[in-house]
Here is the input.
Amino acid sequence: MKMKKIIGVLILSIVMFSFTQMEMDGYITLFENSNSAKYYKYRKSHYFESFDKEKEVIADKEYYVKYRKYGWGDIDTTYYRKGTDNYYHINKKTLEESVVLPVNPKVGNNWTKNDKSWSYEIIAEEQKFKTPAKKYKNCIKVHCKQLTNKDKEKSKEYFLYYSPEFGYVGNVDSKGKILSYLSEVKLNAKEGDKIGGK
Here is the structure.
């Protein structure tokens, strides 16, 4: 029932949404608003992100549940929590946590995924990230590098951009080519509201 509700919210028609109407704040956003969603362009397709209304307890800790629905139909579920110093996500099968991003990110912050497959480092602040939808300012830039070739279908390295207002806004490859970007946001959606485009 819960998954059907989420899919119903995410499969929406085309609508243009003005970024000036939004009230968001934080490098990791939308944790507590199940009626909000983000729409990202992803290569030649797209995906939607939204959070469940209820938290889930895993290994005695509460996690926010994020759904990502891709244009081709796949759905990923990720579990997040905010700690004192970092945001974390947990692998529900192994119960191992990995850092997503420091709560107060600074140049030089670095961390490794719990299975040592990827490394991350904040390499710049006050960056601009220009997309077909919007130009984001004051972003941090995170260099992520694959260490073990575990994810063979993925490139060896990426650069991620996080905005202090909109959270994750997109990524580029090692040559600076945009791979994904935040295209639209809908906050406090009411029944019948729409987000997304082709």
